[in-house]
Amino acid sequence: MNIQKAETKTKETFFMTEADSLKESTLRKLIAKTINGTQAAEILQLSVRQVKRLKKRFVKKGIKGILHKNRGKASNHSVPESKRKEIIKIIKTSYPDFGPTLACEKLTELHNISLSAQTIRTLMVDNDLWKVKPMASKKFPHVWRARKDCLGQMQQYDGSYHNWFEGRLKNALGEIITINCLLCSIDDATGKITYAKFDDNEGVLPTMAFWQEYIEILGKPVSIYLDKGSTYKNNPRKNAVNVLELTQFQRACRQTGINLIHAHSPQAKGRVERLFQTLQDRLIKELRLKNISTIAEANIFLTKVFIPWFNRKFAVAPKNSSDIHTGLSEKEGLINKM
After folding, report:
1. Which of 67, 146, 210, 243 yields a CA-CA distance of 20 to 30 A from 317?
2. Helix, strand or coil for residue 332?
3. Within 13 Å and on the Cβ side, how many CA atoms surround 236?
4. How would you class 120 by CB atoms within 10 Å of its CB: exposed for 0-12, middle for 13-18, buried for 19 or more?
5. DSSP conformational letter for 139
């Protein structure tokens, strides 16, 4: 079957999405008989009948045959030119480094402009405010570990050093502090941010204070999944004096019955790593819009505004609806273990 003729008859140029590219490559394999119709349907998540119709159009019209019929035409719901100019001006002025999704949310929330994220994305691309990012190819994709079943079963914990305040944070002498640490725990079963706070570092004292506050609010988790940092796990190779010595944090967790699980790579604690990627985009911009310039203000904003919003938007339902946090006994308590 010759489909090349249909593609080269004219010099039309088409914009192809990732989905279009997948359709093209799959149909070429189908025509070359390296896969069958059932396999093509599974790849494209279509019925076999739909694939047959798509193949017929592809053979007849080439690439044009698999693109949406309205591609390149003015939409019946297109944005008026005056509104387009208004939106572009707002984005350039207030949200120049925002992605389309976040810009769309802010236009709705603060400017009463309700359009789809895809429409905002198209406007931004057309006006050089956003560049389409190519998909990263992964030869050996990481297989994600299955989530735990219940809220409180396992918390992924880590700290992220970053310029969270973009130069607005100052010390007592008025000097700008460019790097601060955000401590954060995310529930493995639900993806909820269970607790977060800004601190100077992720050392022993901030970590102990973090989990003391966490337990006072939510109770004791069954386990904590964390980095192999020196705060959390003593490294016998670096301790020639006493290879059996445990860190204060390990000792406190052992005495309170919390199981510590140590990750051996960033991929192993992927959910908290991906969380920080999201926060380094969204949280920084939210702090900027609120003009927050102190750790105290930031921690209040985290607790009262950002974390509830984040959990409503991104959390998932657990397999089991039980919350298995437990209280501390009278003999337990991280504050007494410091």
Report:
1. 210
2. coil
3. 2
4. buried
5. S
Strand partners of residue 323: 151
Reading the block at residue 160, the tokens are 């992220």
Distance CA 28, CA 3 (A): 9
Least confident stretch, 148-152, 167-171, 271-275 = 271-275
CATH class of 155-337: alpha beta
Contact by Cβ (8 Å): 75, 91: no
Q: Cα separation of 6 and 57, whole Å?
A: 11
**What residue segments make up the domains of the chain, in order of their start?**
4-66, 81-126, 155-337
For residue 335, pLDDT over 50 is answered with no
Determine the Cα–Cα distance for residues 104 and 227; give it in Å rounded to an integer.
Answer: 35
Q: Report the 10 Å Cβ neighbour count for 45.
A: 9
Q: Cα–Cα distances in Å, from 181 out to 10, 67, 200, 250?
A: 57, 47, 6, 21
- Predicted confidence at residue 152, as pLDDT, reads 96
Beta strands at 180-187 and 193-199: parallel, antiparallel or unpaired: antiparallel
**How many C-beta neighbours within 10 Å does residue 160 have?**
18
Q: DSSP secondary-structure letter at 195?
A: E
- Other C-beta atoms closer than 10 Å to the C-beta of 337 total 16
pLDDT band at 264 (very low <50, low <70, confident <90, very high): low
Give this prediction's pTM.
0.70
The conformational region for residue 166 under phi > 0 = left, psi -120 to 50 = alpha, else beta, is left
Helix (H) / strand (E) element for 207: namely helix 204-218
